[in-house]
Amino acid sequence: MKDILKIIRYSWVLKPYYLATALFVVLIALLNQANPFLLKFLVDAVVKRGSGGSVETAHFGMLLALLFAAGIMISLISNVQGYIGDQLGAKLRTLLSQRYYDHLLELPLEYYDNEITGVITSRLDRSIATISDLVQMMANNFIGFFLTSVFTLVILARYSPFVALLLAVLFPLYIWLTTITSRSWQKKQEGINEQTDYGSGRFIESIGNIRVVKAFVHERRESRIFATSRDSVERQTRAQSKEWHRYDFVRGVSLNIIFFAIYAVIIWQALNGSFGPIQQSIGTVVLMLQLTLQAQFPLFASSFIVDQIQRAAAGSKDFFEVMELVPTIQDADGAGELEVTAGRVEYRAVSFAYKGGQQVLTDITFAIEPGTKLALVGESGEGKTTIANLLLRFYETSEGQITVDGTDIRTVSQVSLRRNIGVVFQEPALFSGTVTENISYGQPGFTQEQVVAAAQAANAHDFVERLPQGYDTEIGERGVKLSGGQKQRLAIARALMKNPPILLLDEATSSLDSKAEREVQDALERLMRGRTTLIIAHRLSTIQNVDVIVGIRQGAVAEVGSPAELAATDGIYAELLQLQAPTTANKAKLKAYDIAGV
Ligand SMILES: Nc1ncnc2c1ncn2[C@@H]1O[C@H](COP(=O)(O)OP(=O)(O)OP(=O)(O)O)[C@@H](O)[C@H]1O
Ligand SMILES: [Mg+2]
After folding, report:
1. Hey, which of 303, 385, 461, 477 would disulfide with 455, CB 3.0 to 4.6 Å?
2. Which residues of 41-68 are buried (b: 16+ CB within 10 A; e: fewer)?
3. What does pTM read for this prediction?
4. Environment of ion ligand 2 (residues, CB < 5 A)
């Protein structure tokens, strides 16, 4: 119940729907009381006329008409209410998923490092579906059931306090009987949810990696992983259901015993004249039986209701668990906008460790002067990409600071920081959609001329022109319909389009053929011109052309200097130069640096 109230409070913007539903529910519960009374009056009238009393025929007509009218009214109101309930469900679903999505977009990369995409989406779908289903059903049925029972009780109490008391005992008894099983039910449900999410997560991941799955002939194995998780869900559901229905049977028997007692009491009281002389009390007995029947229905349905509530409680727990995660990286209070004037980037004694991991960077210090190029070189896994991620504030430095034109990046808004930095990732992550949509990503208010100019500068225009629909060609999910070099050039065009003063370049390690390579290289040269650039270099030709090289070894700066200076030492760069002689050993060593040949 606490969870339901939490959801209602959380979605209180839907107040008109909640209030309208509440109003109609009360109306229907009141109208439901009319039937038993009309039946009572009818029986009373029949008995009276049967025993020689005078009752006008019109009286019967009127009672029947009222019965008819009440039926129509109930039907009308419950449909209007059902419509509002459906709207409420749909709106709630939209509201919850939108907020969930917005919140996920706010969470830092650290969260995504430890989650599987499919699990995130599966959890989202499941939790929101169970919550909104429940709220919708509450609006459409449950509360009405409950209120009808309460009204019925109140009326019954007027005729037979004892019967009302017996009925009143049922509610707490029933709730108590339910809570006995509820905890174990919830526990099993958590296991079921976890397995469901795991199965869906793997499902989505392998569909996303379908090329790898096929190339490694892993279809059967993937299918079996999925089957195993579904089996586990099935097994746990069976155990859960068995337990639940076993207890539900006990609950059902208890209910039946109590109703048996109630009916017996009503009949006994009637026979003993508690409702007056037997002839005149038949109507009252009919009324009491009707009311008891009316109170019985919701109680017997409540097993289903409790089931729904439990499901929603589990869903709401998952939902709020994510919603209550506070982003570990947030803008400082009163964070200003970053104004890049010259574009000088400086790392000052920066240290960093990934969450729960060991130290990756130690005391990194270097500066990139405005408009110059600085290359990071080092063996694979030494922390080059990590250094770049810190400038984007994808992660927070553990110690030290990074400044842009002297301003600590933690003191400005993340949005303004990232607006000033263009990035070309190691993997050119593109979106499904057209070429134009991809090049203009993040640039509202662009013109087609700008897109074409960016494509031209990125050496992409010619191949785009040759695509079936030119700039309007759909490139497939993550750009699958393009070649590696084409994707890279679109990624470069996208960065050019942004026209940022600072540039982060994680050179692709995949080697392209020499023509494509040169085209990409040309595009990069044009992109870097006049911008402060941090390159994670994987080509000797790139490294030779920068202003400063920073050699990274074991997460620390091992050497800093211009290519000419470092060539004269015995450091990393000098070693790389010496490795150019094409021997097998040299090639192997170059590979350790992920350096493509010259
Ligand atoms: N998201 C992450 N969570 C935890 N540890 C990570 C994460 N990303 C990288 N690491 C670890 O941090 C270290 C540095 O990784 P990084 O990606 O910065 O290396 P790199 O120098 O860019 O390597 P490469 O040249 O192969 O791209 C590695 O040991 C890696 O295992
Ligand atoms: Mg890297």
Report:
1. 461
2. bbbbbebbeeeeeeeeeeeeeebeebbe
3. 0.81
4. 385
